[in-house]
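Exercise 3.2. Students should predict the tertiary structure of the chain below and write it as structure tokens, then compare their answer with the key that follows.

Predict this chain's 3D structure.
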Amino acid sequence: METIIHPALCSKIPDFKAGVIFYQDIEVGPSPQMLKGRLQLFQESLYFDLAEKELTDFPGISEWRHVFKAAGTNPSRYRPAHEALYRRIKKQNYISPVHSAIDLNNFFSLKYEVPIGIYDSSQIEGNVSIKIGDEYDEYAGLNGRINSMQKMITASDEKGCFGSPFVDSERTKVTESTKQAIQIIYLAPSISLEKGQLLTESLMNMFIGIHGGTATCHIIHC
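Answer key:
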């Protein structure tokens, strides 16, 4: 499976880049207490930070709002996924544990202020293209709605779109039955390739430490 960035996306966001991790033979299940504890403590700490700061004071939120605007998306109507998590925490509506893969995704998304998607590879056909969606691109999302991807950054395979920095799809969601997965870290365009690689490797190593299996990763960029 190859993952590429569509030229039309690069024309709008020339510094666009993403970390891509491929996992094999993983075991997804209830999160270990260590992960649940770190996720809870981080949210509690963030809540106090949010009491003293505006959301746009966080560089990762501010930058991703600009990314959405550059792609043609209204970030006040369609919020980047990590911003939506921050808004929940600001209201003290803390994120509850789901399972180990989602909980780790949420932890790193909060920590590094970036959207992160994880997808069941067995539900993906062919290569993956990260692009800006058109009027025909839509999917049933994890938010319980049919989501149009028109003028939005989205990941697509031969079956159609399945993920985005806004919301991911039901089709490719990771469950406790998932054995192979692809994780896309939608990096801040301002990050260097070297720092993006280190961030991606850090996430990959912690994921493998919890889930077992094997993994490879790389950075794709315009």
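Discussion points: The first strand starts at residue 3 and ends at 5. The chain has a mean pLDDT of 96.
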